[in-house]
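subagent[fold] <- orchestrator: predict structure for attached chain, return tokens only, no commentary.
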Amino acid sequence: MQRKNILEELQQYDNITVQCHDNPDADAIASAFGVYTYFKELGKNVRMIYSGKTNQMKSNLKIMIEELHIPAEYVCEMPESELLICVDCQYGEGNVTRFPAKKIAVLDHHLNAGHTTDYSDIRSAYGSCATLIYKCLEDCGYDLKKNKDLSTALYYGLFMDTNEFGEMEHPYDFDMVDELEIDKNILTKMRNANFTLSELETAAVALLRYNYNPEQRIAYIRSNPCDRNMLGVVSDLLIQVDSVDTCIVYAEDNDGYRISARTCGERVTAEDLVVFLTDKVGNGGGHANKAGGFIEKKRIKSLGGYTSIENYIYMKTGQFMDSYEFLDTTKTPVITQDMECCRQLSNLHLVINPADIMPEGTECYIRHIDGNLNFYISFDTYIVINKNGYVHAIDKTEFERCYHYADFPFSLEAEYMPKLINTLTNENFDIISAGTACISNKTACYYAKRLTKNLRLRNHWDKENGNCQRGKAGDYLLVNMRNEKDCFIVQKNQYETEYERLSGG
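subagent[fold] -> orchestrator:
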């Protein structure tokens, strides 16, 4: 579903101020620079500003501003703006100096704080505000290849806000990393000036005061307040301990707590753990083995029953371990004895034979809204996509038995358009235009079980890459009645709209 582009909406204004949050980080600076550049090239009268108690900046940010020619101004007072655009923050929050403006817009990736503004685009699923700006610029037809300074800034904004890409959440985060052309020399300069000696001391002190749960092989550390990326450094070191399979490092940060998690092994993922810890109290995401997030103090308090942040993290981690299962169907078949029976309804889908796009045997993956599907190109492997953008692989013979081609237009109602990517070359392909509409003929029958716990599923499609499918409690595990190796997870609403229970099942 195409979202209205806020940058195009704001073109009606001629005098524009773009504001970072106070004491801005790399993501705020990069995002504001993107908005500033867009309107400057349209001939608008535009300024890029930030405020705060002092004008002190870390060395990496000074390098960023100087080397990438970012026109950031430190101000304490401002005349009324015709349009004030708050970037990587929300007007009315405590970390944003309130300057007067006739109209106010917000572009942000944090949770919506509930403040009313004239315009807003808040996408909390994105790993950085830089991702949001990248997407808005892309949708406006802006060619980022012509501006390496801006591309490098956006890249670094995502890099820093996701702990060196370890906490990326959304397919557009990955797209941005793949597609931007950057100045690697400047990136290296910024990376090499990321920490101060005092922050290094903070990390050293943190490592000396860990708590350890030997039964679950989990280590916890509460650090003194520090740069969010320093938390990642501490957790990276901690997970290398031979008796630690999972670690959580956290520190107070303004009105909440930053957390960084690491895991090793295949049963538990850092991303699932962080999502569980931040559910209803913040936001978080990442990768299988490294993830991070933010927990709001006021939201923990509203839950009640928790005496401290330690108490919350320890209790919730224990609950997560109890609510989580791992199933490797390449080693252990699913027991279908008590599962209900269902069949797929005659809904419209899109089918693609990737062998029409890439040579057979090519290692590739499909990036879609629910993650990555890894496989090798084969004439016998088809890809089926539903209207919401969810993807699953299917054998050619099974497709021919269960589907028939349809002469109908296929409309994808998804925020993200799936794409096929060559693993080795990183070249990507538009698979939607290469697809053909198809309809289930109701011969696809499955065993189905409603999940009572969160589940990581490894099936025969992912056995070599280990990129497991994830399901939440309430979703459904489906097993093909004709081929028990063909099993997958569907979301609760998808199961209810695309499948019907069979009598007696």
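orchestrator: received. Logging for downstream: The domain at 197-320 is CATH 3.10.310.30 (Diaminopimelate Epimerase; Chain A, domain 1). Residues 26-41 form the longest helix (16 residues).
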